Amino acid sequence: MSRPVAKDARNLALILLFMPFALWILLLIVLPHIGMFVLSLKEKVAPRVYEYGFDNYINFAQEPIYWNTLLRTGTVSLLVTFLALLIGFPVAYYIAKIAGKRTKGALFLLCLIPLWVSDLIRAFGWILLLRETGVISSALQASGIINTPIEMLYNDATVVMGLVYTVVLFMIVPLVSTLDGMNDEMIEAGYNLGGNGFTVLRRIIIPYAMPGIVAGCIVVFMLSAGSYLTPILLGGKNSSWFTEQIYDQFISRYNWESGAAFGFVLLLFTSIVVWLGLKLSGQTLSSTVAKS
Amino acid sequence: MKAILSSAVVALSLAAPSMASAETLRLLTWGSYAPDNLVKMFEEKYPDIKVEVTFSNNEEMIAKLRATGGAGFDLAQPSHDRIYAAQLEYDIYKPLDLSKIDTSNMEAKLLDGVKANTTIDGELYAVPHQWGTSGLMADKSMAPDLAGWGDLCDPKYKGKTSMRLKRTILLGTAFAMGEDPFAAYSDLDKYQGILDKVADKLISCKDNIKAYWKGGDDLSAMMLSGEIVASETWDSTAYKLYAENENIVFVPPSTGALAWIDTFAFPRKGKADDAAYKWINFVLETENVKLMSASTGAMAAVKGAKDLLPDDKKAAVNAAFTDDDVENLQFFANIPPGVEDMEGKTLEKIKAATGG
After folding, report:
1. If we measure between CA atoms, which residue out of B262, B227, B235 comes closest to residue B318?
2. Is there a domain that residue A65 lies in?
C-alpha cells in the first residue's frame, strides 16, 4: 500500500475500493486492540512506574469474584441466546413462510421499530413498567388481583427479559433470510412422505435453517455478553455483569491496565464459546455469519 | 452503515481541531455546574470567548484527562480529594496562579482546606468552588428515628433503604463503627483491616437494601414513590426532594456528614488559561453565585453562601443542619495512591456477595 503506483488501472481501482475497508480494520480495530493488549501487560508498581508482565491476568485467575462474574455473564448470555432463539424462530418462520408478501414487509418493520429507540430509553421503559409503584404493579392492584405492590425490577429474571427484548431482532433477521431461501416444496414433500409437523420441523426445516440459527446465536450471544446498560439498569443488588467490572477497573479504580486485561479475557471467553458452538453444531463461520 | 460511521468519524476528527481555537473555553464539569443562563451572560461580557461545556463526574474527569495527558479541556472541576494522587500518578494538572483569582470573597476555611489538600511541591493546584455533603436522607413520616449511617441496616426498615455502592458508604460505615478511616490512610494495612470489617457489615446489611442506586434520578424516583424510606444521599438531591415533599429531609449522620469541595483545577495541556481565570472570577461574583447555587443546589465557597441560596433550598438546609452539625462535618481526606484499588476491591466483594 506504500506504493500505490499501480500500472494497471484495474489494480488501482481495486486498491481504492479496498482502502476504506483496510483503513477501517487497521485504524479502528487492529491498532486499538494492539494498544489495549500492550496496556494489559503493564503492571503498576508505584506512581508513574510500570513493569511488563502477566500479573493482571494472574490477578484475574486468582480472584474468584472476577471469574465467577465472567461465568455468570456467560451462563446468563447463553440463556438469553436460547430464549431469543425460542421466541425468534416462530416469528421468523411466520414472516418468511406464512405471511403474505405485503404483511411480510409490515411485520419486518414492526420488528425493527424498537431498534429506532436507544437501549437506554428502552431500559427506562421497562423500569417504568416493572417497578413497585410502576404501571403493571398498579394495574394489578387496581384490578384486585393482588393486594400489596409487587417488585418486578432489580432481579436476574428482569435482566434476562430485558436482554432478550433487546437482542431478539438480531436472531430474527438471519433466520428470516435463511428461511426465505427455503423452497416450500421441500416442506410439502416432507408431509407427502408421511411426516407429521414435528418430524418436518426436526428433519427438514431446522437442518435447512441451521446456518441462520448459528449466525443468529453468535450475534445474540456476543451482544448479550458485551452489553452494559441493560444489566446495570435492570439488575439488582446481586447481579454483577462482567462489563461492569471492566468499567469499574477503568473508571472507579483508575486501573486501566487490569481493565484492559479483563477486556481481553472477555474477548477470549466469548470467542471460545462461539468456537465450541460452531464445533458442536458442525458449522463454520463462513457457512453462517458470513453467508447471511 | 460503515460508510455512515466512517464519515461520522471523519467529520468528528475534522471538527475537533476547530473547536480548540484560543477563544474557546472548554469546561469539564459536573452536570448543572454551568447553567445556560450563566454561560450566556459570560459570553456577553466577554464576546471573544466561547464556552463549551462537557458534563462528567470525578472518576470520568480524571479518566478523560489521563487519556490525553491533560489535553482537550481548559478548566476542570474535580473534588478536592481527587487532585493530589491523580497529579502524582498521572501528571494531568498544572499549577495555578492564585494572584489572578479574586479570593477576597472566598470562605477562608474552605480555601485553606483546599490549599492544604492540593499543594504539591509548593505549587497550588486548585481553588474551591462549590461544596456540599454526603449523608442520609429519610422520609420523616416513615423513618423518624434515622440518625446514623448504621441505621440503614436497621431491620426495622428491611427492604426499604438504599445506598450507592461507592466509597462514600464505605467511609460512612467505618465512622459509624467507631473507626477513623481518614486517619488510617497513612497506614494502608490498618485501612485494609477497617475495610474488611466494613465489608462484612455491609454484606450482612445487603438483605436490608432494596437496590443500590446509581444516580440522582433513580434515587429520587425510589424515594418520592415511597418505595424506600431512607437512603445514603448527596445533600443536593435531598434538598431537591424536600421541595416536592417536606417530609423528605437530609439527615447529617451522628458521626458527621462527609463534606466534599468541588474545585477549579487547570488541566496540564489546557490552552485558554486567561479565559479560565475570567470564568472563575465571573462565577465568584455575588450575583452569579446566586444563579450558580440555584442550578447546583450546593453551596458556593464564598462568605455567607447560605444566604445566597434560593429560598426553597435555604429552607431545606435549615431543616437539615444545626450549627453543631456544621461543626461536626468530616471533610474528605486526600486519597493516597492505591486506596482507590483497595476500596474498589471491597466494593466488588460486597456487590458479588449473595445476600446476608
Report:
1. B235
2. yes
B353 Cα to chain A: minimum distance (Å) = 7
B2 contacts in chain A (CB < 8 Å):
20-21, 24
B5 confidence band (pLDDT: 50, 70, 90): very low
Complete domains list, chain B, with CATH: 16-131+260-322 (3.40.190.10), 134-258+330-352 (3.40.190.10)
pTM of the entire predicted model: 0.83
Q: Are B133 and B265 in contact (CB under 8 A)?
A: no
| Of B197, B199, B195, B225, the residue nearest B210 (C-alpha) | B225
In chain A, % of residues over pLDDT 90: 52
How many interface pairs between A and B have CB atoms less than 8 angstroms apart?
83
Directed axis angle between helix A206-225 and helix A64-93, to 10°? 140
Copy the grid coordinates of residue B332: 474528605
CA distances from A130 to A87, A120, A123, A143, A237 (A): 21, 15, 11, 16, 16
Is there a single domain that holds both residue A162 and residue A243?
Answer: yes
Minimum mean pLDDT range among A84-98, A211-225, B284-298: B284-298
- Per-residue CA distances from B244 to A40, B220, B237, B260, B303 (Å): 48, 10, 11, 25, 28
